[in-house]
Batch of 2 targets.
Target 1
Amino acid sequence: MSTAPSERIAELRDLIRKHDYHYYVEDDPQLPDQAYDALMRELRELESLHPELITSESPTQRVSGTPLSAFSPAEHVVPMLSLDNAFSEDDMEGFVRRCRDRLKLPATADIEFMAEPKLDGIAISLLYENGKLSRAATRGDGQTGENITANARTIGAIPLQLTGEGIPERLEVRGEVVMAKASFEAFNERARAKDEKPFVNPRNAAAGSLRQLDARVTAKRSLDCYCYSIGLLEGQDWPETHEEALEALKCWGFRVNPEIRKVSGLSGMSEYYEHMLIRRDGLDYDIDGLVFKINRRDWQETLGFVARAPRWAIAHKFPAQEALTVVENIEFQVGRTGAVTPVAKLKPVFVGGVTVSNATLHNMDEIDRLDVRIGDSVMVRRAGDVIPQVVKVITESRPADAKKPEMPTQCPVCQAAIEREEGQAVARCSGGISCAAQRKEALKHFVSRKAMDIDGLGDKLIDQLVDRNWVKSPAELFGLEAPALALLERMGKKSSEKLVQAIQNAKTTTLARFIYALGIREVGEATAKGLAGYFGSLAAVREATLEQLQEVPDVGGVVAGHVETFFKQVHNIEVVDALISVGVVWPESSPSSDGEGTEQDLPLDGLTVVLTGSLEAMSRDVAGAHLESLGAKVAGSVSKKTAWVVAGPGAGSKLAKAESLGVDVYDEAWLLALLERYGISA
Ligand code: IVH
């Protein structure tokens, strides 16, 4: 007997809602994307055959195709307030003391707070009537916002229909809509490529995307939403604590931030602050501080509100990631591939936790787009590891003598001509390796951590080695001797001996590191790994045709062209040969690209292994390359799929994880014996 369409439709909607819950609320997807898409497809097909069964809460009905001409005002049922800010430990101490005094608690009492990241996005109010989303609004002035229901419906993390038990008759939930950092970067990259205006930061991107009159535009912007409080609750009892309120929100299907913790007293609050300050850069979204909220609802009620902020909560702000400063000069720097990049020299400013005095301006097109001039006041942004950027010029404060920068015609370092190819944004010094700036940058890249990983050979030393003409090409690094190095600034006998040892140790490497170290244009770490894995030997990469190169995953025509050109140039071949003749070596393997595409039978095929802690006879990279040459997949983290773990001294969390999952753990001697069996010796 076949199921009636209405039953299957109801079943599919429930299934999709269940998987939305796993994905958004629990952050633990239970279905691959394709399987989820298949459910949606089936539902869409059934609904198109039975349009009378479509309801506005159906997961297929998120995007409305009718743009608005304006947003209508939305009066808040309960005003949306703001928070008082704290900028220091002292401010926090004052806040806790005031709470304690008003609650008439003894000075020794530690109050329980819920500690939450303060998301840097746009506040949203979501109204649900009998479990269905009936209205979404922006904060506006706190009393009246804008009705943005059609746009909010396109955000997957906002449930159209509540799930779970005890669904209230009326519920208003507050949260923050954010754009993930990665989506923001990707959006801006696309905008720049199309010569369109990028967003200044993820907050503006979220706000701009949420306030689109055409919901189809919002739907394409991958917005996210985290909910953090209940504004109105009818038909159910109020939870007694904020912690329980957050739990209830999760049960009803809202995404609640997983970083939220319960803390106690000032010491708990400052511990969380330190912890989150470190976590900040690693989070997917921007946060501009933390919010601490008294957990007990009766205490919240006793404390009440003052002006437009609650007395029971406070925002402890982080150092700002944006600041205003002045462009004192614009200089042109030459990179390792000769690219000439304009750099703004700034009046030093404290931003994103450090003092910044340089910001990249990318290229002349970016200078034109920003319309930045020497003397301008600018907004700079430094978020995490990203190089500081000038994001905006304050044109209103432009001095009369502000000067427009011009691209020099000659390289500021070697005086060779600067050339800019038709249609290219980047200008380049034509001096090649005869340009000291390019040589320095090429060497800095060659020794860097992900390349040859020569410890102790910093930028300042390389500058000196090139300025003294001691090192003209990478192979000459391996001929450096300790007594000579000891003559350089900031070097002594001990440090130069240590450096020579580090240089010699680096001779044993992996093919992927070697290819990456060569600094071929647009060949990053991942591409180098791809090339090494696919071809197995340097000779094979060198001889590969454009077509063969493009068979490597993620290698397109442009990158293949750069690789081919690199190995056609005599001076590059000289560099490579010189490195090999001074003794740079790596384990080579048979190519994973076997002509007919037949599967090779390697002894460790299908095994995923993890190396952790330090090894004595060889580095982890080299050991990993050997294991890969035997067919194993070397992973960075331990899971149930890990076949075995090799742990050396200093192994920590990965070893613990392996033990907790019951994964076999071996030591280095075991690994060496295994390699030995396949004819590989240390
Ligand atoms: S609670 C009365 N919690 O910060 C309580 N706000 O400066 C008010 N925000 O308008 C809000 N993350 O947009 C709260 N975990 C969080 C938050 C948060 C971000 C924003 C929200 C609010 C603003 C107040």
Note: The radius of gyration is 30 Å.
Target 2
Amino acid sequence: MKYKVKDMNLAEQGRLNIELAESRMPVLSYLRKKYDNEKPLKGISIGGCLHVTKETAVLIRALKAAGAEVAWSGCNPLSTQDDVAAALVKYYEVPVFAWRGLSNHEYYDCIDEVLNSLPDITMDDGADLIIRIHENYCSLLKKVFGGTEETTTGVHRLRAMATAGKLHYPIVAVNDAETKWDFDNIYGTGQSTLDGIIRSTNVLLAGKTVVVAGYGHCGKGVAMRARGMGANVIVTEVDPMQALKATMDGYRVMPMDGAAPQGNIFVTATGCKEVIKRQHLRKMKDGTILSNTGHFNVEISLRDLEELAKEKKEVRPNVMEYFLCSGKKLYLLAEGRLVNLAAAEGHPSEVMDMSFANQFLSVLYLVQNKGRLNNRVHDVSREQDAEVAVIKLNTLGVDIDRLTREQQRYLKDYTSGT
Ligand code: ADE
């Protein structure tokens, strides 16, 4: 079996981490057991390009148990957990092509290795693999019959591709499932982003001013958790609706120009480029911490930071100190890449449980509907969302009320008013 990981000696630790994650992912474990006998994915080859973490390993195990052949690469140069990558190769016989710290060139080499396994289904987080197929592997487009996309940025890219008439196979937007983005994006990003900031700097949040750029699901989670740790939170936005929500949630909302001189810690969560650039960097306080939790490292202008600095040095892992010509020091975390995965472990297993249950069920959906879906971005069905919610509640031991017949009738009866 071909593979490329950093160090196979890390495999035992990786296995322990995967087992720990699995013990906190009851929905995915339930699905793995449910489909283990039936093997609905038998004969299906899956090419994955998602962060190689202990939670992803649990997803891969479930896909394999259901009969799939799987090959995997990471979807970010700094997010691979090398122990997990080694364990996937050694204990679970998965051809993995990923290690932490690979170059851009190596990153695409790894994706190419996955594509050489000739997948029938692709699984993306950020859409790099699917776009690689469309650009460089046109012949593979005849074989691939569907794909899934995990994240907001990837869904945006794929919807743009579909609108341009350039998407050549159907995609399920796992990100947009309610049991994904209302949990993973909010609670997962909220907690893991602060985890990344704290692990890398050990900074005290209480009393600090934290500026969160973007008040989508992810920014909302970060703002909520930062406030919970005692920070004063400022939100910056471009969307009037999101800005209004942030205002009514009790945050100060202002343009980045106004926030730049006030913040101690900045977190970008917009999915857009150059949210923090030269004019903002110039106004920032000495000692300011800069971090990003969006998918790509484009939200903080690294070029402007480099140009404003006369020196830089890594003062501890994941913390680069930029000494500006003005005499101020700014601290950039994890090279401006997603701080929650690069400087911590990504979202906790409990929340990835629902996201990856949706990934698993979406792959089943693609197999069951092979040849019947058109080449656009499809939403997860209400039924699938409800199934994941019900299983999760059951595994949490949470019971809920049920409508009586009379209540059901009442809800359908438009005649009974005042
Ligand atoms: N994205 C965010 N957190 C993650 C995790 N723990 N595993 C895989 N993908 C993630």
Note: The chain has 17 helices and 15 strands.
